[in-house]
Amino acid sequence: MALTGRAALLALLGTLVVLFAPRPGPAVAGVALLLAALVAVDLLLAGGVRPLRFTRSGDRLVRLGETATVDLIVENPGRRRVRGLLRDAWPPSAGAAPRRFALDVPAGERRRLTLTLTPVRRGDREAAAVTVRSLGPLGIAARQGSHRVPWSVRVLPPFLSRKHLPAKLTRLRELEGAHPSMVRGQGTEFDSLREYVPGDDVRSIDWRATARRSDVVVRTWRPERDRRVLIVLDTGRTSAGRVGTAPVPLAGQEDRSSAGRGAGLGGPSGVLPGGLSGGLPGGRGGAGTAPGWPRLDWSMDAALLLAALAARAGDRVDFMAHDRSVRAWVSGAGRTELLSSLVNAMAPIEAELVEADAADMVAAVLARARRRCLVVLLTDLNAASLEEGLLPVLPQLSSRHLVLLAAASDPQVAAMAAGRGTPELVYDAAAAERQSADRRRITARLRRQGVEVVDAAPEQLAPALADAYLALKAAGRL
Amino acid sequence: MNPADITDTTDTTGARGETPAGAGHTGTNPMNPADPMNSAGLAAAPGTGSTSVSPTAASLWRGGRGALLVALIVVAAAVAGVLLGGTGGQDRRLDPDDTSLSGAGALARLLEGRGVRIARVTSAAEARTAATADSTLLVTDAFPLTAGDASRLAGTPGDLLLVGGDRRLRTLAPGLRATGEARTRSREPRCALPAAAAAGSVHLGGTTFAVPRGGTGCYPAGDDPTLVGYRDGDRTITAVGDGDFMTNLRLAEDGNAALAMNLAGARPTLVWLVPPPPGEAAAEPGEQGIYDLVPPGVRWAVAQLALAVVLLALWRGRRLGPVVAERLPVVVRAAETAEGRARLYRARRARDRAAAALREGFADRVVPRLGLPSAAGPDARVSALAERTGQAAPQVASALYGPPPADDAGLVALAAYLDMLERQVRDS
C-alpha cells in the first residue's frame, strides 16, 4: 500500500481541529481513527494490482544513439477500475521515458502505453519491473504492487563510419575495373581476355593470345576474391581507455551538442567525469577534458566499416573478440548477414580491466584460421603491454598470416604535446612527446617484423583502416 | 529506428550493388524469423507473460511471523516486569508511601504497627503546621531543602531527626557541625545512647559530625561519629550521616530496623517531610514556566502535527517500484598516463628528462624532412639544420645536444627554440 499527499493534508487539517477542540485528547484519537477508517475504505475500494496482466511488444534492437519504442499493454481482468500511476523500471542507461505513466484502466479493458528508450550505452538492457500504484476513489491511499514483465532490448554499436562506405566502395570498384571511368583494373588476379579497344593500356596486351588470333587481345585483371579477413578485437584493459569525443552521448557524459544546455543525459547513472578531469592545467578546451569514447568502441566502428568493405569485395570475414580468452567469435556468416551478426556479437562486449593474453590470442587465431588470412588486430599501441604481450608471440602469427595492427591514437596527447609558454605546459608537452616516441618506437619494431600498422585519430581510424585494406588489396598482398 | 537498417546495409553492400548511401534509410521491412538478428537468441514470441513479484498477505505473514513473535515476547516481558515491579514511575527515596527498594514503606508500616501516627507532608510550611511538641520531625536527604525551608523548620516544636548529609545544620541544628565523609557500612554503636545501644550494629556512614557539648556520638567512623544526639533546649535533635539503613532494601539487615524505629518512633506522631511530586513543584504562583502557560490544546495539536509529518514522510518515502542497479563501465581517459607522467616531471622539476623527450620528438619529426637517414650522427644533423635554417651551428648544437636547461625558464626557451627551428624547416 501507499499513502498520498491527501492523507498528510487531512492530518494537517486535523491539527486545526485539535487546536480548537474543547477536549483535544479525544480529538486527536478521533482524527486518527477517522484517517485510519478512510485509508481502510480507500484501500478496500481501490482496484487490485495483483490480477493485472501485462504484455509487451516493440523493438528488440536499437542502434546506440537512436530511440526504440516498447509498448506495454495493461489488461485489467478485475472487477474494479484501476486508476493511478505506473512505472516501467529500466536500468538508468536504457534512457526510458517517461519515468511514470498516468494509468486508467476500466474493469475488463486494456490500455497500451508506449515507452521510448534512448540508450546511452551498448549492450543488453533488461526491463526490471512494472510497478502500479492503484488509487482508491478518495485518493487517500493506494494499493501498490510490482510485476515482472520480461523484455530486453539489445543496443547495437552505432556504426557511424558507414558514412565512409560509399567513398571506399568507389575506390574498390576502381580497383576491380568496374568503375564507369573505364580505368584498367589494378588487381593482380587474372580475370579474362577480351578484344582490344582503343584506350586500353597497351601494356596489358597479351601477345601470345594475340598471336593465336587475328585480333589484338588484352588481359584484364581483377583483385583477388575469396580471401579471408580475420578481425581480432582486443577487449583488454587498454581498450577501456577513453579517447576523442564521443559522437553519441555515453553513460555519465553530456552530449557534445547539449553541453551548453546543461542537463546531461547520463546524469542518473552516476558516473562523474568531472572528478576525473579535475586539476588539469588550464588552457585546453572543455572538449579535451570529457572522457570521450572507449578505444573499444572506435575499434568496433572501424571493424564494421572494414567488414562491410571486405564483404563487398568478396572476401570472407571472421570476427573474434579476445582478452584472456575468446569473448566472441563470428565465422562463416554470409555476405548479407555478416554485419548483423557482427553488431549482435559486438553489442554486449565491454572492455575488461585485465591485461590481454596475447599468447592465448595468437593460439586461438592459429587454431581457427587454417588458411592464410589477413589478421586485423584492433588494439592500442601501448609500448609496455605490446612488448611484453604481443611481440614475443608475433612471429608465430606473422609467419602464417598477414598481420595488420590498427589503433586509435589519443588527440588529447597530441594537444598536450603542443603546449608551450609556461613550465607546466612544457612539462606536459614533454610527457606527451615521450609517449608519442614510445608509440613510434613500437610502431617501427612492428613494421620491422612485417606487420602493417595503422595509427590514426579516433575519428579517422575507420577510413584509415579501410584505406590500408584497399592498399593491401591493390598490392595483391592479401 | 528499425533493426532492419543494418540488414539494409548488408544488402546494399552485398548483393544488390546499389549505392550504400541507403544504409541510413529507415527500413520498413518487418523483422522476420529468418532475420539473422533474431537468430542471435533474441527471438521470443510476442506477448510474454507477466508475473507479480509483490509479496502476498500469506507470504508477508510467513516472513513476518517470527519477528512478530519476538516482538510479542518482548512486549509481554516488559508488561510483566512493570506489573511485578510494584509501583510504576520513578522511585521516591525514603518516602513512607514508596515500596520500591529505595523507599521507606516498610519502616512506615512498622511504625504504624507500633501506634505511631505518620503525618506525611510535602512542604516546610505543612511540616511546621503539623509539628507539635509531642512529635518528631523527620527531614531526610531526599527533600530539597532550601534556605527558606530551613529557617521555617528551625523553630518547629518537638524533636528533630535529620537523616543524611549536610542538612543545613547551621540553621536547623545549631551547634552541630559536619566534619567529613565516611564509607557506609555496618558499624558498632560504641556509645551510651539508648536507641543505639539497643539496636546494635547498623549500616551507617555518610557524613560524620563533631559532637556538640552535652551530646552523644555513636557509630564512629574513625574518631567522628556518624550519629549524634543532643538536647537543644526542650527538644532532642538527632542527626544521622546516611539514610540507607531506613530503606526497604536495608531495613532487614543488622539492627537497622531497631535503630530506625527507636529514632523515628520516639514520639507518638512522626511528621515525615518528603519532596512534593514533580508536577506540583511549580504549583505555586509566580514559579510557572512558559510551558505551563501554553493551553493544553496546543500540546495535542503538536502531537497531531507529528502524525501529519509521519504521513507526509510515508507519502514521500514510498518509492514507485524498485531501484534498478546496473553495472557501469569504467570511465578512464587514455590520456591519464601521459598526464600522470607530466605531473611527475613537474613535481620533480625533471628538466633533463623533459628536455630529452622534447629533443627526441623534434629529431623524429625534423630529421626525415632534412633528407638525412635516421642513423645520421649529431654532427651531420646539426650542420644540416644550421644550413637549412640559417641559425648559428653552435646554437643549434647546444639546443639539440647541450646540457639540460638549468631552470624552468630555460626549458620553456628551449621548447620555443625547437619550435622555431621546426617551423623554419617545415616552411623552407
UniProtKB/TrEMBL annotation, chain A:
Record bears the keyword Lipoprotein: yes
Q: Which organism is it from?
A: Streptosporangium pseudovulgare
Q: Does the keyword Methyltransferase apply?
A: no
A Pfam family this chain is assigned to: DUF58
Question: Which residue windows does the record flag with biased composition (Gly residues)?
Answer: 261-288
Cited InterPro entries:
DUF58
* Record's protein name: Lipoprotein
| Residue ranges of every copy of the DUF58 domain listed in the record | 193-236
Q: Which PANTHER family match?
A: BLL2464 PROTEIN, SLR2013 PROTEIN
Keywords tagged on the record: Lipoprotein
Q: Where is this region: Disordered?
A: 242-288
From TrEMBL, chain B:
Record key words, sorted: Membrane, Transmembrane, Transmembrane helix
Where in this protein does the record put region Disordered? Answer: 1-57
* Polar residues bias (residue ranges): 48-57
Keyword Transmembrane assigned to the entry: answer is: yes
Q: Where is the DUF4350 domain?
A: 96-263
**Mind telling me which residue stretches traverse the membrane in this protein?**
67-86
Q: Look up the domain of life of the source.
A: Bacteria
The record's Pfam families line, in alphabetical order, gives: DUF4350 (PF14258)
What this protein is called in its record is DUF4350 domain-containing protein
Please report the organism this UniProt entry assigns to the protein: Streptosporangium pseudovulgare
